[in-house]
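On clarity, I found the account of how folds are encoded harder to follow than it need be. What matters is that the chain and its backbone geometry are given together, residue for residue. I therefore recommend that a typical entry be quoted early in the introduction. An entry of this sort, consisting of the sequence and the corresponding backbone structure tokens, reads as follows:
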Amino acid sequence: MWARNLLFLAVCGIGILWTVGTLSQPASRFVYFSGASPSGKPARSEGLPGTRRHRDQSWQHALAQLDAQFREAWAAAGLTPAPRADDLTIARRLSLALVGTIPSLEEIRALEAWPEDERLPRWVDHLLADRRYAEYWSERLARAYVGSEQGNIVLFRRRRFRLWLADALAKNMPYDELVRHLLADEGVWTGQPAVNFITATINPAGGNEPDPVRLAGRTARAFLGMRIDCLQCHDDKLGTIELGTADDPQGGTQAHFHELAAFFASAQISLVGVRDGQRPYLVKYQGDAQERKVAPRVPFVKEFFEGHGTRRAQLARWVTHPQNRAFARATVNRVWALLFGRPLVEPVDDIPLHGPWPVGLEFLADEFVRSGYDLARLIRLIAASAPMLRDSRADFPITQEHEAAWAVFPLSRLRPEQMAAALVQASWLKTIDGQAHVLQRLAMAGQIDQFVCRYGDLGDDESSDQASTIPQRLLLMNGELVKERTRPQPLVTATSRLAMLSRDPPRQVETAYLAVLTRRPTPTEKAHFVTRLFDVSPRQRGQALEDLYWTLVNSTEFSWNH
């Protein structure tokens, strides 16, 4: 018995020291990017793709040009842009976009310890070097590539695919190389995870073979930003799909779609996995009496097509060719959507081939190609751009013209997994990242999955903005995750540690606001909640803090990106 009591006291002591350090000091394990950690040892991030050495003069010049384009557009439209948002607000929106959760109190303390002019660049570096970025973006991108369903578990391993994608993002693999792997790789779906892009379309009822039609549709949407799926059944009679060249535009036809699908007809499943064979592609066009054999052919910019290698390798080189502007535009538009919650061109996968295009799209596409398809550099440019730094509020009426021109930061609801992750992080003062205890990470993953299952998954449409429902609001108000993460639990939740270790109500209120909303309370808010805490006895302080946390978590501000 005495041994168990001693162990309990030791755990309590460690927890107290840990929490006190979190409340008062910047975290020593937080990633620094100035070449050395506060202890003088080399920074852990040295050599990773998230270091400041990537922000060279060419990057600074590109950022100045990008900002100039937006400011000129605002001036031409007679729009006054919203003022610059404060650093914590920008840090919150970047954290939600890149790692899918809000900053921890530990991260906020470290961020505020940096020089003001270095905070946001260092913050982006920190997030891009964090494994959470690779894991979160791998899931977001996987939904565009292979969907959100598990599919045929025998021939499709979505988890293996997503982990491979996360590793590629962590290494900052050139994006054109990544896409060529998806389109052209061969092998077994367990040993060569990229081929799961192909096997994801397998339908057991269709002979356990990849579906060329679905692969063509996904390739066009995910990598070319074109919705040409409807052409599989009929020609475009409404003139909504333009192919050909800018000088000689052509309407979309069934032939355009099925000639693209023919590149995937050779992909077959064998004992050694996905291999390219010689299977012909047969289709019955509208109005035809019988099927005809269709040869593979690209739907536009045919002059850059290289006809050697396997069919899928030919297609992969054409899709990612530097002169194939559709590929660069589609990537920029998707990255912008992931960072802002809304794409430059809506829908995210329906970009005009011949324009017109919004401000910033063509310039960023040029920079993306010029950088060698460096995804991290593209993210840094957009994250530091004038639209990203705008406030979502202003002291003048905000119009639809302001929102359309990106003269104000757009409001967007948090995705279900963002909301769940933010709730768990807010209840734990330390950062829940790859260095957190494995049990804590597993618990967080399980709670997020359960919450998303009950709240409702948004599915494959990554830029959808659906209105919340009454059951969803009730889940936030009375759900198990909210109850578990806000009620006082010794050494487990932030409310209990604040009640135990800080007897200062003003500090408790400020800490709660920082942990939940990533900002300090206004004088009015602080006065209100401090009075409530002073009105209760110290023994009841835990319940009062639980009420405060519950109120903040259920505020509109918490559930929106702004």
Observations:
- The chain is about 50% helix and 5% strand.
